[in-house]
């Protein structure tokens, strides 16, 4: 029983070791990566960039960034480690050395008569005939009798002097770091140990392998579903117009798995009204076109509406559930656009050429998604050959503001760059009535400085330097 209790006392040390082995390096790696991150600096002085959450995070945003499942798990494990360390520190694990004189309450070197007197005195307190307590009986047999024997019997005294115990050499005692209920030899501990071995050594690896194989069978090496690759390959055509690339892009299997809830119908209807002008619907048959669009697979309708909400910057109209789906959709977009581009430029001819027209459409769609600019803004106009899309990246710029800017066709070194970007128009007073003029000028000044630096590098290279 005593050995079982000693083994059980070692179990917290075993648990502490198992937890600390992966926890300590994982914590240090996370701390290193956290402190290694560089803080983002504001390169623009406009009010939008200065107040942007990209550069300035509220205390609630910082707390939410920290309160992830992994971080909370790490904190919980460290609390468990601290409690285990405190418990182990207060466990009495010291090896008790057999000291016959201290057991009998005597000083070393006393006479035999004093030893006998002490033995008789303790016998009155602990002898089974005087004290029926089982613990007293155990203490009398294991300690008092052996201490008296070690000091009075010649053989026991010789064993004590040689080996430190009246019974002679004591065997080495090894402990097992398992809880006490697993060490009870009553038939149940063997079953529990067997179930633990089968579960940890066989069932757990088998379950992990099955989950991994079932998931990996659905994905390619770039973590894109095989069904997505089939859909992109099937719908990719050499005559695919850039305006039609969106219809192929949203057919990804990852987007089809995003749930379509009945509670989102009202929000999607409002969103449809906001982005209807960007859906390539024929205005001559608008009702039939709307009905045809809404009769598509619900996942396709939802994905295209969310994507158009991003391009037209109408995300404020999204409900909380749609906003979660919207963030998931954007997180998948870069990976899917890369695979869509691969399908466009994959060799289709004997010369190893791909299809240029759909490839250009994928590039334009990628730019529009990154810049949050509608595809219609990229269409050329009489004044702007590349459309007004680039100007929509500037703060407070709308289509009406862009119409007031008339870029010159040639930019000279004597001020043409200010004309080309519309700075002269702004400073001349044509847009001076706008309250947010300062932000526009700041952004344009920032853009012009980059253009001038690029022009200087090109001329430096042209001169042979």
UniProtKB/TrEMBL annotation:
Required for integral membrane and secreted preprotein translocation across the endoplasmic reticulum membrane. GO terms for molecular function: protein transmembrane transporter activity; RNA binding. The chain crosses the membrane at residues 12-33, 66-88, 191-213. Gene3D superfamilies: DnaJ domain, Sec63 N-terminal domain-like domain. SUPFAM superfamilies: Chaperone J-domain (SSF46565), Sec63 N-terminal domain-like (SSF158702). GO terms for cellular component: Sec62/Sec63 complex. Coiled coil: none annotated. Residues 99-164 form the J domain. PANTHER family: SEC63 DOMAIN-CONTAINING, TRANSLOCATION PROTEIN SEC63 HOMOLOG. Keywords: Chaperone, Endoplasmic reticulum, Glycoprotein, Membrane, Protein transport, Transmembrane, Transmembrane helix, Transport. Its main location: endoplasmic reticulum. Pfam families: DnaJ, Sec63. It is a multi-pass membrane protein. This is DnaJ / Sec63 Brl domains-containing protein. InterPro entries: DnaJ_domain, J_dom_sf, Sec63-dom. Interacts with OEP61/TPR7. It comes from the Eukaryota. PROSITE patterns: DNAJ_2 (PS50076).
